[in-house]
Amino acid sequence: MKTLTIKLSQIYSETGNIEANVRQMEKTLELSEYDAVDVTVFPQRFLSGVLTEETITEAADTYRTDRFKHFQELARRYNQWIVFNFPFFTLDGFYDTTVLLDTNGDIRSLHQSKHIRPVEASLFQSGELSEPVDTPFGRVVLTTGEDMMQETLPEADWYFIVDACVEGGSEARHERLQAIERDSNGTVVYMNRVGQLNDDTYGGGSAVYYGGACLTEKKQTFYTPIITVPPEPKEPWEA
Q1: What is the mean pLDDT of residues 163-172?
Q2: Which of 4, 11, 61 has its CA nearest to residue 31?
Q3: pTM of the full structure
Q4: What percentage of the chain carries pLDDT values higher than 70?
Q5: Backbone Cα Rg of the chain
Q6: Of residues 17, 41, 3, the one with CA closest to residue 161
Q7: What is the pLDDT of residue 146?
Q8: How far apart are CA 239 and CA 236, in angstroms?
Q9: Contact call for residues 58 and 87 (beta carbons, < 8 A)
Q10: Which fold does the domain 4-229 belong to in CATH?
């Protein structure tokens, strides 16, 4: 498995201003290319900001519009693997959707978890676990907070988890992330939900990375960590 450089993007979204948030994405990816980053991971719901009834509909049109094609073009233009998240409507309900694009802009993995109600406080039903996909930097599994709580996950070198807000709160989340690292040969990288401008309730999306007992976490800041794996050994983080 080759050395991998990951950027965990700390975007503060303007709620309901999809195009402004897309411009933030473009700037982030341009910097990723400059910094020779391999994979850029965006926080959950960075397109819409905090989901409300008013913002969800426009964000949910992403896959059906030229916006998604634009994201594919950005992956090609900046030679990036990209992990990002957006809501998606189907006839049987509303899904939280996470996608892994390769440097050709092709969808290499897609994960969906179903919302019971299309609002921020809604509960999730677990989706089907994504099949591992082979990449130049190893085998990847794309998942979400709810599905990572299942007893077993497929064997992989990397577990990309967008939104690790799970039943039981942060303690259960951290315990599960650490257990995945401990019980497998894989490395866990996750991006928590996005922050919202001028809203101290949510603060910044927490960029959190587990790998070799290493964790980086910053809140309420525009800090964007760039991590090269394997990292230098560090002391385990304690909740």
Answers
A1: 56
A2: 11
A3: 0.74
A4: 53
A5: 16
A6: 41
A7: 67
A8: 10
A9: no
A10: Nitrilase/N-carbamoyl-D-aminoacid amidohydrolase (3.60.110)
